[in-house]
Amino acid sequence: MAQAARGARGRAPSPRYRLDVASRAVAGIGGGYALSVLVTLLLARLLPLGAADAGLAATMGSFTIHAIAIIWAFSVRGQARVWGGIAGAAALAGLLLIVIHEIGGGAQMGGGL
Amino acid sequence: MKGGFRQSMAWLHAWVGILPGWLLFAVFLTGTIAFFRTEVTFWMQPELHASQPGPETAAMAMERLRTLAPNAESWVVGLPEERSPTLSLSWREPGAPPGRRGLTGTVLDAGSGVELHPRDTAGGNFLYRFHYELYALPRDWGRAIVGIATMAMFVAILSGVITHRRIFKDFFTFRPAKGGQRSWLDGHNAAAVLGLPFHLMITYSGLVLFISTLMPWALDDGGRHGRGGAPPDAETTVEKQLTPADLPEFAPIGPVLAQAEALWGIPAGRIMVEDPAGAAVITLAPRRNTRLSAHSGSGSIGVERLHFDGRSGRLIGRDDNIEESAVQATNNVLGSLHRARFADTTMRWLFFLAGVAGTAMVGTGLILWTVKRAKQQARPDGTIPRHIEVMERLNIAAITGLTIAVGAYFVANRLLPVDMADRAGWEIRVFFAVWAAFILHPFLRPLRVGWVEQLTIAAGLFAAIPLLNMAVTGSHLFVTLPAGSWIVAGFDLICLLTALGLGATALKVAGRWPVAAVRPSGRGARVRRRAVGRVE
C-alpha cells in the first residue's frame, strides 16, 4: 500500500491509485473470503476431531484467516504479490481438498497427514 | 517495509473503520443497552413496578395455576428475580400448538398476586434485536449486513493495534484541553485501549454467533448446535374437564426450590410442571447459567435442569446439559461472553461500561476521520471537499441522531396512550421517524450548529425521561430510590448521567469547534509532544 497511499493531501486520487485500491479490495475481501472457505473446508477434514467438532473448530477460526488475507492484500507491495499470495494459498488449499477427497480420507484420517 | 507496513495498516484502519462505521456505532450503542434488555423492558412497563416478591411467591404461583389451568398439559412459572421482580404464569391448554405460540399466560404482582396488565411494548428486545438483525429486513439480510460490518470491525481492531505501537503510552495520554484532532485521537485511543480485550471478545464472539450466516460451509447442521430439545409432543388429550379440586396435592414448593439453590448456588428462575393432573414432574431451571461453557441459548434462563417428583418433592433427575466436546464448549463460551449470559449484576455493569467504551471508540473514530481530513484537505479559501462535508453530516446523524431516537423511544413509551392499538409498533415507528428527522437535520445546518443542536436536544430528552416518569408514572426517583427499586432508579439515573454528559459536550462543542486551539498549560507541557503526522 506504500506507493498507493500517496495521493491524499487534497489532490484527487489518480485513476491508477483507485484501480490499485479496488483490486486490493477485491483480492482481500472476495479472494480472502474464498480462501477462508477453502481453508475451513480443508481443516474440517484434517483436524483430529469428530466431524462436527472439526467443522465447528475450523469455522470458528475462519474469520482470522479472512482478516489476515485482508491485511495481506492491503500491505504487500505490488499487485502480483497481492493476488499471487491469495490465489496461491487458495489453489494449494483447493488442491489438497481434491487430493483428500480422491483418496477418500477425511475426518476419519485424523491427524495422520 | 517496516514503516510501510504500519502506514498501510493506518490507511486500512481508517477505511475499514469509516465505511461500516455508522452502522457499527448503532450496533455498539443498541447492543450495549441490550446487556440490560430485561431491565429496560421492566422499566418500560411501569404497571409492573410495584411488584415485590415475598417468601410465599412460588407457593402462590402453584396455587394460582391450579385454579387457572387445571386442565393444562403443562405449567410454566417465571419466578421474580433481580432483573425483573414480577411473577409470570403460563400454561399449555390441551391441543395447543407446540412452542411459545401455544402458551396462555398472565403476569402477576409477585407479592400480592394481583393480575397486572402491562402496556404493550417491545421494550429492550427491540434494541437487542436491532443490534444484530436491524429492522424490517429479511432476517438473513440483517444478519449478513451486521455480520459483514462485524468482520470490518475485526480488521479495524487488528490494524488499529498494529498502527498504535505506543499503545500503552497512548492510554496515559489524554489532552482534552488541546482540542480538535489531538483530543479526538487521544479519546479514541483511550476508549480503544481501555476496552481492547472486551472489544476483541465482543467482535470475535459476534462473528462466531453469526457462523451459520457468514461461514456455513463446513458446518453439518447449519450452526444450530444444542438449542435445547424439541418441545414435547402434545399426545395427552384430556377428555374429562378437570376442576382444581381434581388435581392431587403437590409437595410444598419451598423445599424443592431450596434443594435446587443448594445444588446450583443460585436460585431457580423457572418452574416447569409437566402433566400437573397426572405424573406432575416438576422441572427447575436456574436464573442464569452457572457455567461459562453452558450453551447460551436465546432466552435469559439457564440451561441446567433439575427434575422432581411433584407429589413427593424428591429429586428424580439432573440434566446439566454439559458439552462433552471442548470445541462445542469453546463455541458456548464465546456465545455466553457475548450475551453476558452467565453474568451477575456486577459483571453485567462491567460489560455495560466496556460497551460504552466501545461505543465511544467507534464514535470518536468516526469524528477523528472527518476532523483530520477536513484539516488536511481544506482548500486555500477554507472550504472543504463535498464528500467530507457529507461524511461530517452523517456522523451527526449516526451519533447524536441515533442517541435522540433512543431517547424518543423511551419518551414515546411513557407518552403514547396505554390502550393504543399496536402500541409496541408505534413506539418503534417513533424511533425511526425521529431518527429520520435527525438524519436530515444536519444537512440543513452549519456543521457546528448541527452538533450543538442535536447534542442539546439529546441532553434535554434524556433529562426529561426521569421528569416525565414523575409526571405520568408513580415510579420516579423520589419513590424508587427510598424503596431501593434499583432497576427503575438505575435506569433514571443513567438517563440523567447521559443527559449531563451530552449537555457538557454540547457546551464544549459550542465553545470551540473544530479549530485546534492549543492552550498552553502546565499539564499540556508535561505531556510529551508528538508529531500528528506520525500517529495516523
Task: Give structural notes.
Chain A: The chain crosses the membrane at residues 21-44, 56-75, 82-100. Chain A: This is Iron transporter. Chain A: Keywords: Membrane, Transmembrane, Transmembrane helix. The complex is a heterodimer of chains A (113) and B (536). The radius of gyration of chain A is 18 Å and the shape is elongated. Chain A is an all-alpha fold. The longest helix of chain A is centred in the first third of the chain and has 32 residues, at 15-46. Chain A is built from 3 helices and no strands. In chain A, helix 1 runs antiparallel to helix 2 (51-75) and helix 2 packs antiparallel against helix 3. Chain A has one domain (15-112). Chain B has 536 residues and is α+β, with helices and mostly antiparallel strands. Chain B folds into 2 domains: 2-44 and 125-212 and 343-526, no CATH class; 52-118 and 229-320, no CATH class. An 8-stranded antiparallel sheet of chain B has the order 4-3-2-1-5-6-7-8. In chain B, a hairpin with a 5-residue loop joins strand 7 (305-309) and strand 8 (315-319). In chain B, helix 2 (21-34) crosses helix 6 (139-163) and helix 9 crosses helix 12 (326-339). Chain B starts with a helix and ends in a 10-residue tail after the last helix. The model of chain B is unreliable at 222-238 and 515-536 (pLDDT under 50). The interface between A and B is large, with 33 and 40 residues.
